[in-house]
Amino acid sequence: MAAVTLLKPETQDKGQLAVLARDVRKSFGRVAALRGIDLEVPWGQFLTILGANGSGKTTLLRILATLARPTSGEIRVAGIDPLRNAPAVRRIIGVVTHQPLLYGDLTVGENLAFYARMYDLKRPHEKIAQCLAALGMERRLEVKARTLSHGMQKRVSIARALLHDPIILLMDEPESGLDSEAVEMLEHTLRSPSSDSLRTVVMTTHNLERGLAVGDQVAILADGRIAYLEQCAGVTVAEVRSTYMALTGSTL
Amino acid sequence: MSGFFRPMAAILWKDLLLELRTRDVVASLFIFALLVVVIFNFALDPAPELVAVTAPGIVWVAFAFSGMLGLNRGFVMEKEQGTMDGLLLSPAGREAIYVGKLLASFLFMVLMEIMIYPVFAALFNLPFFLPSFIAISLASTLGFAAVGTVFSATAVNTRSRDIMLPLLLMPVTVPVFLGAVKVTGNALAGEGWAASASWFQLVAIFDILFLVVAAFLFEYVLEE
Could you list the residue range(s) of the whole structural domain that residue B189 is in? Predict the structure, then answer.
């Protein structure tokens, strides 16, 4: 299994936080999706965010990914204010959304070549081969995206997010639709010790066991706020599950 | 500049490749324009004096309404496939996305015009080759696509996008079609370039103005 090498950028300052959110609020009309998010993710940390449907997980990730503007609050991604310099943030983040962001009538290779050009990547074919190999998709290069299963499309989507060697990964339920082999590949790719890069991951999930296994920190988002934040090493699945139930009123 | 040209070329390449695979846009534009031309041909008396008066209007009705279909498809396709976020997540400047989309729409419309004009000329017994008509078609289509690309990106997020685009686009592009119809009329009447100079200037000014304004506005249009 090939590992995706992330390069450590010159700009990465270990003293800074990879992700910082201060009192971030977001409303859609009268509906408040986020009611004051405070979050600090140090470099190299893997933050797992749990939350019921409608708790604001996707909205938070979309704001961090520059796809949505907060109604109020302060955000820094790698020390950069995305509201002032969104292109600089986009260059260093990789994003996996619910949608695979693939063109059905293009092949896997053509899709990734398109995104490589959008990121103005040098040696795109090498990067494409590396990323596809990391997710076990190297033999699907010439296959049209629409003929792939949902899980396969998800793998290609993750390869797309990794294509430009992002130092921060924002992943919205990346394991949904993936089989266990693909989930293992994904975890290996995310946790690859192949470089000295301080790769930071913010991942939302409904899979508590997986989330705790791969994460350094676990947060529970409830009612538009971070209601719980702990180091994964210091908690058990049972503890987090009961806390989750108490905070959200639903089960994982 | 590679930060502009590579993403812009990537979007153009991607849209052309998708069109080559599906033939959705150009085929729809051609069939719509063909219907317009054929219906007018049945409806109107083919007397030369009447054709000279009505032909410029007919050809531009066909080009404009069929072109609108193409402009609508550009962003609807991105929305339907869920790929809009992919474009927005890239660090490419929004002006690169704008120009890439604009060029794709422009090429699809020009292709439709190249296919439909010979049919139109044959049906109405008009000359097949008119240099000033070709020039004004290119200039007017560029202006139409320049404004239409921005409005298409605006309309795609509305529920009534199919109605919204013509409502937004038609009033703004009146100068383009005014110039286009006048120059086409002069060309069909056998008048020289000099007779159409002021109309060419009008369309050229529109093109330059709206290319600059639209490229600037596009970033704000794409924001949530």
Answer: 2-223
